[in-house]
Known about the structure:
Layout lengths: L10 E7 L4 E6 L4 E3 L7 H4 L10 H29 L8
Parallel strand pairs: 1-3
Antiparallel strand pairs: 1-2
Amino acid sequence: MAKKGIHPVYKPATITCACGNKVETFSTRSSFSVEICSNCHPFYTGKQKFVDAAGRIERFNKKYATGQGKADKAAASAAAAAADAGKTPASC
Length: 92
């Protein structure tokens, strides 16, 4: 059994959101208020918007595509040089 005198006292509490939603629960605190709840949070209501702040996706693609682009350019120039010389590029 649980020891006496060491456990907190749970009492009924009302959590009130800024939107007016009220939730009845039990807590060691008395009633309190919150700024946002599941009824008004954009993630739960489906009104969430995804914003690409300052082109982060484009910057990422540009940054990591440059290494790939250099290898492709080198291969293309080697193939062009071989074609100009009348030879076919060696295949692996």
